[in-house]
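tmp note - RmlC-like cupin
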Amino acid sequence: MLDHFTIKPGAGFPDHPHRGQETITYLLEGAVDHEDFAGNAGTIKAGDLQFMTAGRGIMHAEMPRQNPDDSANVGMQLWVDLPEKLKKCEPRYRDLRAKEIPSVDVDDGKVHIKVISGQSHGVDSVKELAYTPVWIMDIEIKPGGKVVQNLPEGWNAFAYTLSGSTAFGVGKDKTIVGQYHNVVFEQKGDEVVAEVEEEAKENEHFTLCHVAPLFLYWPSHFSVTCKLQYGNWECGF
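out:
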C-alpha cells in the first residue's frame, strides 16, 4: 500500500503500533520527527527516507516539524508485508539521507533518476536498506525525454505520478497519465517505458516501485495472522 500524505500544522501520527511489516517513508517537503518506545529517535527532512522494519512489534510516533511558513509536510509511505519467517525479527531502522542517494542521468540529460533502492542504468543503490526485496526510483523527465527502466521479471511494479503528464508503454499500449495517479504494470514484462512529449509545458516527476510478489500489501497495520500486545508505553512528543 502506498500513502501519499500531507500533514498540516497541528496534525501528525502520535503513538501507534506496527508489526509484521516494513514501512518506507520518503519525505518530499518539510521535516518529520520520529521516536519509539525503545528509545530510538531522529528526524528526516525533504529528500530523506526512513526504512523501518517492525518485525515482532514496535510502538512509535511520527510528528511533523512546524515549518516557518506554516506549510504542510508532504511525503509518501510504502507498506510491505514481511514473510512469515521474518515477522518476529527484531525491529530496526535505517535512515537514508538525500546526499547518500546515488543518481544517474540518461537520454542526453533529459531524464534524472534517483536510485533509492535497486539498480538503474548500471548504478546501484545503497545496500541493506530493508529485508524486503524492493526497488524504488525517483524519476524526473524533461519534455522530449524517454526512459526504459529494467526491472526483475515477475515482480509487482507500479508508478505514482507527482507532477506533469507521462506516457507509459509503447505503441498501441501507450497511455498518458496525469498528476496524482497510480499506474500498475503487468507482471509478465521486464521493463517500464516512460516518456514526456516534446511540446509538454513542464517536467514530469514520478516514483517507480518494484516489489517481489512474495510480499503482499495489507490495508492495515497488521497481517491477518498477527496480533500485537503492548502496555502503556509513551514516546516523548
